[in-house]
Amino acid sequence: MARRLAPLALAAALLAGCGEKPEPPASRVTAVTGTLDLARPAPGPPDAGTIAGHRAPDATASTKRTSLAFSGRVEPATSRVTLRPAGGKPATVAVADDGSFRARARRLKRGVNRFVLEGRAASLAPWKVDIAITRRR
After folding, report:
1. Which of 7, 88, 109, 119 allows an S-S link to 127, with CB 3.0 to 4.6 Å?
2. If you count DSSP H runs as helices and E runs as strands, how many of each does the chain have, helices first?
3. pLDDT tens for residues 92-120?
4. CA–CA dist 46, 70 (Å, integer)
5. How do the domains of the chain map onto residue ranges?
6. CA-CA distance, 61 to 22, in Å (whole number)?
């Protein structure tokens, strides 16, 4: 009897594993990521000057007002987001449970105003965006 069951047990064991693929390892998050509802500047040649070439901002906007609000999303949603004017102190930006946020750049002077938006989370590489906001007349 044992001789008859052995081939059946072997066949059942072989069929149980057919077609199954091992689960791929889960990718580990290594950095904070995000998106902004601001325009991206058109690329220029590398020697086209500061705005279109080297040191070009990651995002741009323009306004006639002294402040500008923009929205975005950060992942993970528990990240701490700050907006810092060039040479200034960072201001904390409130982040909703789904990772969405609304930031406001204040005290804009006429011309180009530079800001750095940054998202940080423990043990992850930060997300940084260089923003140029032009205040027009």
Report:
1. 119
2. 1, 8
3. 999 999 999 999 999 999 999 999 999 99
4. 28
5. 29-135
6. 48
